[in-house]
Amino acid sequence: MFRLFKKKEKIKRELPPGTIRKEFHFEGNVQNIGFRFEVQSHAKPLGITGYAKNNDDGSVTAQLQGKPNDIHKVILELQNIDHIQIDFISEKDIPLDYYENDFYILY
After folding, report:
1. Which are the contacts of 87, defined by CB distance < 8 A and separation ≥ 6?
2. Tens of pLDDT along 53-63?
3. How far is CA 32 from CA 10, 27, 35, 62, in A?
4. Residue 63, class by beta-carbon neighbours within 10 Å (0-12 exposed, 13-18 middle, 19+ buried)?
5. Could you give the strand order of the β-sheet that contains 60-66, starting from the edge strand earlier in sequence?
6. Phi and psi of 86, rounded to 5°?
7. Which one of 21, 29, 32, 36 is the catalytic residue?
8. pLDDT tens-digit readout, 10-48
9. Is the dihedral of CA 7, 11, 12, 13 positive or negative?
10. Which of 104, 105, 100 is nearest to 31 (CA)?
11. How many CB atoms lie within 10 A of CB 60?
12. Is 54 one of the catalytic residues?
């Protein structure tokens, strides 16, 4: 059998000291308004990795990995965007992902 595609090797990277990873769950008017793209556009310039995805119940889940102050800044900025109404945010600490190197929008 032919092997047309080479499997991409994952490389474990070293993370800056103090790096954390949090999972956020957003409820409110957070779907069909570009919320996931807003999360990405605020996270990427700060070097935050992770993802944002829509949930079937109308909420959005986002995992953010980076410096604590940068993650806090993203959350505050999201709460101050006029067309977004966040009614509830939950957060929890989760294990670091040493293989992740970008911020993605999951579909």
Report:
1. 27, 28, 29
2. 999 999 999 99
3. 33, 13, 7, 16
4. buried
5. 85-93, 20-29, 60-66, 49-54, 103-106
6. -95, 115
7. 36
8. 889 899 999 999 999 999 999 999 999 999 999 999 999
9. negative
10. 105
11. 20
12. yes
Q: How far is CA 27 from the centre of its chain?
A: 15
Nearest to 91 by CA among 75, 80, 107: 75
Report whether pLDDT(1) > 60.
Answer: no
> Among 21, 54, 55, 69, which one carries the catalytic annotation?
54
The owner of tokens 């092997």 is 3
Q: Work out the angle at residue 85's Cα, subtended by the Cα atoms of residues 84 and 89, and round it to the nearest 5 degrees.
A: 110
The question of whether 101 is a catalytic residue gets the answer: no
Between CA 42 and CA 61 the distance in angstroms is: 15
Q: State how far Cα 68 lies from the chain centre.
A: 13
